[in-house]
Amino acid sequence: MAIGLKKLLAGSGYEYLTRQVAVGDVSGKGHSRLADYYMAKGEAPGRWWGAGLAGMHLVEGEAVAQEQMKRLFGAGLDPVTGAKLGRAYPVFADHPTAFETELDRRTRTWQQQHDGLPVPKAVQRRLRTHLAIEWHTRDNGRPPAGSRELHSYIAKATSHPRVAVAGFDLTFSPPKSVSALWALAGPDLAAALRAAHTAAVEDALIQLQARVAATRSGHEGARHVEVRGISVALFDHRDSRAGDPDLHTHAAISAKVQTLTGDWRALDAKPLYAAKVYLSEVYTTSLTARLRDLGLAMTPIGRDGKRPVYEIAGLEPGLLARWSTRRARIQARTADLVTTFEHDHERPPTKAERLELAQQATLDTRPAKHAPRSEAEQRTTWKAEALQLLGPAGLDRMLHDVAAQPRMVVPVVDEAWVAQTAQRVINTVEAERSSWTPWNVRAEALRQVRAAAVPLDQITRVAEAITTRALDTASLPIRTTRTQPVEPQPLLGPDGTSLYAQPSATRYTSRRILYAERRLVDTAGRLGGRVADHNSVTLALLQAMANREPLNPEQQTLVRDLATSGRRLQLAIAPAGTGKTTAMRALATAWTTSGGTILGLAPSATAAEQLRSQLGDSAVADNLAKLVWAIAHHEPLAAAVGPDTLLIIDEAGMADTLTLDHLVSWCLDQGASVRLIGDDQQLGAIGAGGVLRDIATQHGAVRLDHVVRFTDPAEAEASLALRAGDAGALGFYLDHHRVHVVDPDTATSRVLAAWQTDRAAGLDALMLAPTREQVAALNAAARAARLDGHRPGLHVDLSDHNQASTGDTVITRRNNRDLASSATAWVRNGDRWQVTAVHRDGSIDVQHLRNHNQLSLPAAYVAEFVELGYATTIHAAQGVTADTCHGLLTGEESRQQAYTMLTRGRHANHAWLQVENTDTHVAPVEPGLFQPATAVQLLETVIARDEAPASATTLLREADEPALLLGPAVTCYVDAITYAAEHHLPAGVKDNIDAAGAKHGLDRADAWPTLRSHLMLIAANGHDPVEVVNQAAALGPLDQARDRAAVIDYRLDVTQANNRTRGPLPWLPGIPTQLLDDPTWKTYLSGRYQLARQLADETRHHAPADTPRWAQDLYGLDPALVADIQQWRAAHQTPDTDLRPTGAPQYSGAEHDAQRRLDRALQTSQAGIREWLPKITTAAPACAGDPALPAFAAHLANLARHTPELEQQLTQAAALGPLPLDHPADALRYRITDLNHQQDEMARREAASIMRTHQTHPQSPPPTHRPRHGHDRGISI
What we know:
disordered C terminus, 5-stranded antiparallel beta sheet, single chain, alpha/beta, 6-stranded parallel beta sheet
């Protein structure tokens, strides 16, 4: 059970929803009864729903007409009268780009040359490819370098500048078994099932309308405004594109909403996305209760991530599998067509082209009858298919079994039950995250209600009681402790809360989480732990050298510090590839040499086994969960922990806070010491996490920053930039051809081919993907390639819906200590094996790929916990090192996933981007049809998506951090003075402003609301706004302006309109003079002013001691200038990952001037930038216009101080070959890095050669000194 959420774009984006409507609707003939629709070809027309319909002259339940959809969703107009509902949608998607215009001209030319024949699709595609290559060569001086650049050029050339969001398609889909039963059941049960689904959809929409729907108003949408309701067009669909039963409903929610005062505004999308899981749980819980009332039961059949997947009990699984096979045939045919397309055009298809191919594949794999079918015809077909599979007796037996399931016992819901359930809810959410929102709690409350079989009529009341109790008594709100101004009555909502409040956005935590975090942080400051003597440490370092594993200075420092600090709990931060394993092995040797014992702990059993082999034979290692169990059951693993024990917890960032606190507290009680080793920028804990940052902030951490894994030093630097969220890292990967573009239907074959090529070359290669489903597809492709068309013989079905036979690689997914492969080894989650035999009872014989142990896996275990093991998830690959890595990405991943994936391979790491990743069922409403994304744009989005866990302690600290509060405070201040001005001014003045806007054609421009608010400020300062507008318009023509209001606004300076006060920041307006005399507003606005001023001063005076990331290449900056820019960035909420010193360009007059002053001050202080800019663009013209060019120039200016031959290196680097079109300056930077490393390596080899020559011809023996072995002094190495 799930819901999908997609944007509906203005223009023609809505047409998909009406395209499959029954003939009676589109012909205008109409039908008088629902039974008529049952017999009609196609789907029934949609129906209107929602309280917002009253303002649109519609009635709930009326049929949706095509013209109504065109007006409301296509143009933003009243669906009945065509009148404006606020601002009409500006639609540019229907206006062709220059590329599309030229392509249309060439298409018509071809048609004229062929006697007016219809242009075949293949010809259209060939013309598009040829035009793209021609124009790419014209624009860039060279043809595209491969399919990625060709696809990128077409995507940019066909991207439309702006398409308004007309609404949202919220798709409700029941479990497959519900659709299957509905398709096969008798008329009464089928009608009841459909009614249950429809009612559950409406239950979810009721909650959306009551709790989620709102709009925003004012400066940058600062004010939360309630609305009268939503307007929804509901469309029921019966089948999938494969023709299988797939009952689902599209709820097209209009973006037009009406405030309580009657104004039309846009629906706020942010809470809609935040509440998506909650709305899904509302639908699921309502549907489950209604199915239960029909005598049906739901049973778990597997898991989808953390949650179990439920289907109707008693339904034959083979029936669903058969219909899934049909979908697989369509996907396979689509893949064949896409493969042919890619071969013919040397690029993946665009979204529109891929949709055409998918539709062709559907037709190619269907039976002869392609026309739309009535529901009666569909049900006849589906029943015939079920009879063919099950037989008449089997079908009757299945329908009987479905209805004969036992009923669940209904609980007695009293105060005690609500309290216990509320605590279970908090226990669940705090095990998954360190902080939560009301949506998280409401969703979990519904899961608890559903599991307890609470009756349908009590669900809403009981779930709300649980939520209220969980938030009010078991949760602590995370909010600022600073005193906030109290809003006057005009800025309060109907319920008395501030319009600046964020409903349901408040984050909460629990005392349990906070106490656990504080204990861990406090423990990291405790001393008095056991230490290893210096001689033991030195001998361990010498032993590493003797074993040809010499440690670099950073690693040596880490070993010495962790072994001799005496800290009870200490943290080491080690990014990917920094030699953590080698350092840990030396640490374990030092500790055991000094008489101590080592216990290694890892997140999983497989990782623990690897850790044991890394730490050495004297170390014991297991997973975290095992030690928790051992502590509770007094097992030997726990009994071995004592004062001489050092616990090394590897990948500590993946350990959840509560488990970590429990283990650390218990181990310290036993006298042991603990060392946490991890990286806070790789994948985090499944549960509550983020505490590593708190420990590092409070007590520091030992760090490894020198990356040693990669054969290319430039890749090492790129990996660290990627880790920090710097999209400039893509310069390296693009320049080294590591970023590839693939179509979803051919992604597995392309990744597999690259993996096989590396394997054939003798390389240890990895195949990674973000999800289990994608991994299963890669594994299936790998197995098919291994079999190469040969029959596999006896095989077994695995838990990932794949099959395995002798010779396949499989992976076990559940720890089972009863399945032992030796005296010390047993089956672990993540172990990889080769199948050596398959037995008829479903069991298999396997051999471990690493230690070669053998055993037999029982059939039940194989069916539930064994998968093919050629590929694996990114999460499971953390800690793994290989020669090369090929990873699949869709653009939905986080930076942490991308960083983990792109740091596994020593020699090369490749990212394969699915650029046209769209469900063809909803493809026509996809924004990507009008604004297609390139592979680089998707990767930039991934890098910007930081999902590193933040602890509750961090969130509480940030809630009072001036630099984070300044931006919202500035937004509220500006909005408050503009709102107050409009509230204060008489109606006649506002009418005059509107008339002036209409006179100059400003009121239809996008920037008119901003200009209008500024004119209100001018009027509230005693000036004539009409005269000001006329004067601004007279300064220059407006005919060619894309946005006239923006031009006029730029010509104004509202900061100079007030001669009594200035704004809290130089570019902000002061409080209008008339409002300073208004008793309603004076005190409040003064409070807003003082808050913004205070936060601005604190931000400027408490700038971080460390050099900000944006300034790291700007040598010798004046601290006062750095403080000014930090203040500017905080006020504009510029993220740390944006390395432009003053962030995004600002266009309003005063802000634009203030930004220019800061930029000029930077340029004045950085003469090196001015020196190197022309040198760079001369050597590499492709860098001209690159936003990263100034930062690159600053980097070279800094580098030139100790690299006299830098200008020669720049020329040499530019001559190595064409730079990528995206991130060219960054790519050139990494080339210079590579050249520097090459020169350093040559110098090192020359020095070593001279040293060897000197040793061959010694002049005189050096004096010898006997080393001193004091107890408190080690040997210097």
